[in-house]
From TrEMBL:
Belongs to the ODR-4 family. It is found in: Membrane. One of its GO terms (biological process) is intracellular protein localization. May play a role in the trafficking of a subset of G-protein coupled receptors. It comes from Asarcornis scutulata. This is Protein odr-4 homolog. The keyword Transmembrane helix applies. PANTHER family: PROTEIN ODR-4 HOMOLOG. Keywords: Membrane, Transmembrane, Transmembrane helix. Pfam families: ODR4-like.
Amino acid sequence: MGRTYFAEEAIGQYLSDLSTKFKPYVTGLLIGQCSSQRDYVIRAVRTPPKEEQKEGNTSPSKLESIDEEWITAHASQVSRMLPGGLLVLGVFIIATPELSKDSQNALRKIIFSIEKSLTKRRLWKPAEEEVSDRAALQVCSATKKIVCRTYDVQDPKSSAKPADWKYQSALSASWLSLDCTVNVNIHIPLLATSPNHDLEKNTKNGLNRWSKQIEDSVFLINGQVKDDDTELLEGQKKLRGNTQYSTQISDVKVLTQLSQGSSHRSTATVQVCGGSINLKGAVKCRAYVHNNKPKVKEAVQALKRDIINTLNDRCEILFEDLVINEGPHKKNFERVYHVLPQRLFVPFAGSSVMLSDYKFGDEAAVEIQERFVEMLDQSVQDEDIHIAEELNT
């Protein structure tokens, strides 16, 4: 039995619009949530055109010219803009009938390329029971016929399995959000033996150790430690006259000092250091789970991953910014303060889910708006940009 993808109805219209606008083909990403029972697709986003394609709405005429690297880079950028619980769960192509027979192979290559890129950046390990199937959606621009297949990204030899693609109205409204603020105070020693004081590598190592603490932390939901397999909404009242629950469980606290495994013995080591990095501040974290009987385990896992991702992504963005502004070879050993970018959230139409992004203090709203148009094909109004954190974080 193949997987079933429930897609927000508006995606059908979006794909239909793309098929009339872009010829002979257009590619893009599918965004949503995997669960053991079913998968939810809340958004499809076309691959942004390269500079040379912006002039006319045309793609190169042959599928061999699909730029795997460009699509993979787009997926990496988009994954930074997704709060906990959401991921790039597949790719789509809308192609003319004559290109359709070759497009499945192209999609397969892209899916594995994206997975390889995202895995390399991750600081958390997938759970054993994690869904590793990713969707390849083919739409014929002439007949509008849809073919959905999946590939298991854990298996490099994986062949295509058939999957169902079903549209559902108001899917984007049926989500629960979990919010928390995590106070970060990470001290990363720079070993005297470390070559060239490689700040980026050392920071990554320090974040790796910290991410394990987050994985082992205890999460209080509405002041209680709940069993992994209990339903998240157990004991919650439904809103009167409504089949939906309240969409927010905002009171989540993270107890990082309490470890769930008593076997973790701490041993002290003495190391000769030539300096240190300190990451300090309060970060806003958010995760979404679909309200179809979510388990505590799923919600906590989504929030843990958001906590780890948001700090890792900011450090990556900062280092990328330093390379652009200071050059890759600048090594600065004096006491330097860098402000990590602030987190912001932006709603998207007809949905209770908000997407995320990061801004440096001197970045104007127009730059954020341009990024949303390019990366997520979405226009954003000034008043829709919600800065989640104080600047001094």
